[in-house]
């Protein structure tokens, strides 16, 4: 070969090698091949645009709809546009749990923006037209622009809404078209582009991690599926679109406060649904909450038509109603109870790229964003066209609500005083957040007609200081929706619901059917059938209680156990190294009434405490907003317990772990996590279920298993848990995690589900009767105790029992009853007032229940809380019952359980509870406790901390977490 050619060949070879090496080292990605049908070429924003306004593409680095913008990018865009345009004001209304800002954007003409405070004031006067004359009303309506509120992406992984919001904002601030300028002159358009920044941040991070070079339209690919902690929920894994009437989280509290300040005419809430679906909007079908105004539905039809016309022009398929109902008031549609016209959007969930749907067509993410955008523009244009008439209907309804002709005129909700100060404070805070008018009685008030929470019509004496919420007020519809004991459901809906359950197990109900706030909070309340106006005054918050009341020569401090905050007080003191006691029976020491469950901090127990005990007690009391009251004497009045006796138990600091990860309900896990953080504020660990087999449980003395979707734990894991419990651990299992433990083959718990208990059902019935007899304060045959001869007859509890069906028949009956699942109803439960798990709980406890395991107990297993509360029958009803029986014994059974003589069992408090469901859960255990070796197992049949708002049952969980190790398990002595 010629030398020159050889050199040339060598150079080419070296260059090739270097090019390959450089390509490999640089990680150069190949361009994807074309995917037919993916590209969406229609521009979202059209028309003449102001070049001085930065385009979304220039800010994001991609066109709107090409990718999901991150929360940081959205915030940056809002900030940039506020600097560039005189048509926009950006308001930060809240910060998320993770510290991200939440904004709403006010879009209008410069003239309207300069007059924002007056517009808000005028809207407020229409919203509560007390002393508003007709002429003033006409003047206000004449000068007010249309006011709309468009809200997007409360579920962080329903991404298209936020990107549509960016397109909508840009169109409104950049367009130089006459119709948009006119729209802004006639309207104030408020856009909340992102209601859940923490969830969207989690979602967009997952997208970034799963995104490849080539577009992916396969719904089974990880790009289109969710990790365990989905972006749908917020930091604590709560569904924020259930929180508007509950007010638990800063995100929704900020929205509620802002909407209440503005009183918009229209609210849009943009969501997403299944990826194979099309587009849903418009009015809901039954069941619809009966507290909603009729005019909102009338105008809803008008908006429906205009929106449908806009979608028809694009040849997009859509539908209305179908699965959408509107019974539960806690969605963003809560605004409709305030008089706002509410419209829901549900776009097929595409995430990024696109999705190949069942018909073979690729639906792109950009097209989904466009649907949300087109719908938004259509709705605000409809409002501008009909704004004045909508204002007139709005104020007409408000005038009726505050008049004597109000549909709620003869109704007042009375919440009785309680020593559970934290719980009452939370309730008042929620009522004030919603803008309700609150009063309290200045002296005792007698009422002749009231309904209690068990559905009984009673006469009542309301003590001075009773909290009164008159239903005759401008927000009467929302007041009724949140506080009425039952939401009305039509007979037609009930019949269809029953047909569906029997046909295929489906349901019309999209959410819970009970949500009464007083019941969820465990506050005693009455619905008084009159408008109470005498002997009342506007509510004033009670004066702050001192964190500590000192006394000379004191020996201890006491914090009342009736207050939920006492549990956190004890937990935080133990974490600070303070030895803490709890009393299990009420007493009086040094003139101080001490309820069971009260916390005692004595100088004797803390003789060697390294810090300043008084200062630590005061600091902790201030944090928990309780009063630590000093006592100087330890002798109980009369025969009441003395300090130093067996009723004062030393607590053990809990070392808590919660199971999390795949298989675990993120909603229930998040609720427990949030409860610990917000009620206790103590350190605890989250254990990933995938690493459980490698977890050293010896670090913890308390393990919580949240509800699971399936059998999450392996046989090895269950065996390790069993061994750990026997060594002194406290295991707390909830709802769906319970069946793994009660399975007879697991040999962990003695509790059984009802379907596994029929073989020994008579023993369960005898155990139930034994519980009843043990609580009675009288013994009819008391005189026989003193007879000298041996008794020839003894009454056995089962003597009068009706004959039970066979085991086979019982199982067959149970299978039938189980079809009629509980639809999120609140039921009455009876509590064992001598058990430590019920500290702070009333004798009758409202429990929110759904299709939960039905738990059966006997033998040494304790049942501190059972479903159903006994109500004594009057003599005439009892005689009638006896007369109706063949043998005159009047023995009755509800399912497997015998009713005691002269007793009825009250169960339903609120919501849909079919008779079959009532019969199945009657007398079953909601909460159980059993010893196992040196440890214990505590089971909840349902979720005690639902949406952060079931404070009544949350107290049981807090008791189990904080007091369990000290009161229910045997731990080694660690201090000498």
UniProtKB/TrEMBL annotation:
Record's keyword terms, sorted: Hydrolase, Metalloprotease, Protease, Signal, Zinc
Keyword Protein biosynthesis appears in the UniProt entry: no
GO function terms (MF aspect): metallocarboxypeptidase activity; zinc ion binding
Cofactor(s) required, per the database record: Zn(2+)
Signal peptide extent: 1-26
SUPFAM superfamilies: Class I glutamine amidotransferase-like, Zn-dependent exopeptidases
GO cellular component, one term: extracellular space
Location of the Peptidase M14 domain: 67-433
One GO BP: proteolysis
InterPro entries associated with the record: Class_I_gatase-like (IPR029062), Peptidase_M14 (IPR000834)
Protein name according to UniProt: Peptidase M14 domain-containing protein
């Amino acid at each position: 070969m010629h030398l020159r050619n050889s050199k040339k060949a060598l150079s080419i070879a070296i260059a090739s090698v270097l090019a390959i090496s450089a390509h490999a080292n640089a990680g150069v990605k190949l361009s994807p091949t074309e995917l037919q049908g993916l590209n969406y070429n229609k521009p979202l924003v059209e028309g003449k645009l102001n070049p001085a306004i930065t385009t979304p593409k220039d800010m994001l680095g991609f066109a709107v709809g090409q990718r999901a913008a991150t929360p940081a990018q959205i915030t940056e865009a809002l900030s940039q546009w506020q600097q560039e345009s005189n048509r926009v004001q950006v308001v930060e209304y809240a910060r998320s749990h993770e510290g991200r800002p939440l904004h709403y954007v006010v879009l209008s003409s410069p003239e309207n923006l300069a007059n924002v405070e007056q517009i808000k004031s005028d809207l407020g006067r229409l919203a509560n037209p007390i002393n508003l004359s007709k002429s003033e009303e006409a003047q206000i309506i004449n000068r007010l622009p249309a006011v709309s509120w468009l809200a997007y992406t409360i579920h962080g992984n329903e991404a298209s809404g936020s990107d549509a919001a960016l397109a909508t904002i840009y169109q409104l601030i950049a367009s130089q078209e006459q119709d948009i300028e006119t729209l802004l002159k006639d309207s104030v358009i408020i856009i909340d582009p992102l209601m859940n920044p923490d969830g969207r941040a989690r979602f967009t991070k997952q997208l970034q991690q799963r995104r490849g070079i080539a577009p992916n339209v396969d719904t089974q690919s990880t790009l289109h599926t969710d990790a365990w902690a989905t972006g749908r929920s917020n930091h604590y894994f709560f569904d924020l679109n259930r929180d508007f009437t509950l007010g638990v989280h800063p995100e929704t509290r900020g929205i509620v406060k802002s909407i209440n300040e503005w009183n918009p005419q229209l609210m849009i809430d943009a969501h997403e649904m299944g990826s194979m679906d099309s587009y849903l909007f418009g009015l809901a079908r039954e069941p619809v909450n009966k507290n909603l105004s009729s005019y909102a539905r009338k105008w809803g039809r008008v908006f429906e038509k205009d929106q449908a016309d806009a979608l028809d022009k694009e040849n997009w398929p859509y539908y209305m109603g179908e699965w959408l109902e509107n019974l539960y008031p806690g969605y963003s549609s809560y605004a409709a109870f305030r008089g706002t016209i509410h419209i829901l959007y549900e776009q097929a969930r595409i995430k990024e790229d696109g999705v190949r749907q069942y018909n073979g067509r690729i639906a792109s993410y950009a097209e989904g964003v466009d649907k949300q955008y087109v719908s938004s523009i259509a709705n605000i244009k409809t409002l501008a066209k009909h704004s004045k008439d909508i204002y007139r209907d709005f104020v007409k309804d408000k005038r009726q609500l505050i008049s004597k002709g109000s549909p709620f005129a003869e109704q007042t909700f009375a919440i009785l005083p309680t020593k559970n100060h934290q719980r009452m404070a939370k309730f008042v805070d929620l009522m004030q957040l919603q803008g309700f008018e609150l009063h309290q009685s200045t002296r005792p008030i007698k009422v002749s007609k009231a309904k209690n929470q068990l559905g009984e019509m009673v006469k009542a004496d309301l003590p001075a200081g009773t909290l009164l919420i008159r239903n005759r007020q401008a927000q009467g519809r929302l007041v009724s929706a949140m506080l009425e004991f039952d939401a009305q459901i039509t007979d037609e809906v009930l019949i269809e619901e029953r047909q569906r359950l029997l046909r295929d197990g489906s349901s019309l109900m999209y959410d819970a059917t009970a949500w009464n706030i007083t019941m969820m909070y465990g506050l005693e309340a009455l619905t008084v059938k009159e408008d109470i106006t005498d002997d009342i005054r506007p509510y004033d918050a009670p004066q702050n209680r001192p964190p500590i009341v000192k006394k000379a020569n004191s020996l201890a401090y006491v914090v009342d156990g009736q207050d939920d905050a006492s549990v956190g007080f004890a937990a935080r003191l133990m974490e600070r190294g303070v030895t803490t006691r709890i009393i299990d029976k009420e007493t009086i020491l040094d003139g101080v009434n001490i309820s069971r469950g009260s916390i005692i901090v004595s100088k004797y127990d803390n003789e060697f405490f390294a810090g300043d005990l008084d200062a630590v007690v005061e600091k902790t009391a201030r944090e928990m907003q309780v009063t630590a009251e000093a006592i100087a004497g330890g002798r109980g009045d009369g025969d009441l317990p003395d300090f130093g006796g067996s009723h004062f138990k030393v607590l053990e600091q809990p070392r808590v772990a919660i199971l999390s990860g795949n298989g675990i309900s993120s909603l229930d896990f998040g609720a427990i996590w949030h409860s610990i953080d917000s009620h206790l504020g103590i350190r605890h660990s989250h254990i990933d279920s995938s690493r459980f087999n490698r977890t050293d449980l010896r670090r913890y003395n308390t393990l919580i298993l949240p509800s699971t979707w399936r059998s999450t734990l392996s046989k090895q894991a269950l065996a390790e848990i069993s061994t750990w419990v026997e060594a002194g651990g406290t295991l707390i299992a909830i709802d769906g995690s319970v069946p793994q433990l009660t399975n007879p083959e697991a040999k962990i718990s003695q509790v059984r589900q009802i379907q596994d208990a029929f073989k020994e059902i008579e023993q369960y019935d005898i155990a139930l009767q034994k519980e009843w007899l043990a609580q009675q304060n009288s013994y009819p045959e008391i005189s026989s105790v003193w007879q000298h001869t041996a008794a020839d007859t003894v009454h056995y509890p089962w003597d009068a029992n009706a004959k039970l069906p066979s085991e086979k028949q019982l199982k067959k009956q149970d299978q039938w009853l189980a079809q009629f699942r509980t639809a999120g109803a609140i039921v009455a439960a009876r509590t064992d007032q001598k058990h430590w798990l019920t500290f702070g709980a009333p004798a009758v406890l409202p429990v929110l229940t759904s299709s939960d395991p039905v738990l059966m107990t006997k033998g040494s297993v304790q049942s501190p809380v059972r479903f159903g509360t006994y109500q004594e029958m009057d003599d005439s009803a009892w005689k009638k019952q006896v007369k109706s029986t063949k043998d005159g014994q009047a023995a009755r059974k509800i399912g497997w359980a015998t009713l005691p003589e002269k007793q009825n069992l009250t169960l339903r408090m609120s919501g849909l509870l079919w008779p079959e469901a009532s019969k199945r859960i009657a007398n079953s255990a909601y909460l159980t406790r059993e010893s196992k070796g040196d440890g214990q197992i505590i089971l909840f049949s349902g979720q005690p901390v639902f949406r952060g708002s079931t404070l009544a049952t949350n107290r049981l969980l807090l008791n189990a977490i904080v007091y369990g190790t000290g009161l229910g398990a045997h731990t080694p002595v660690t201090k000498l």
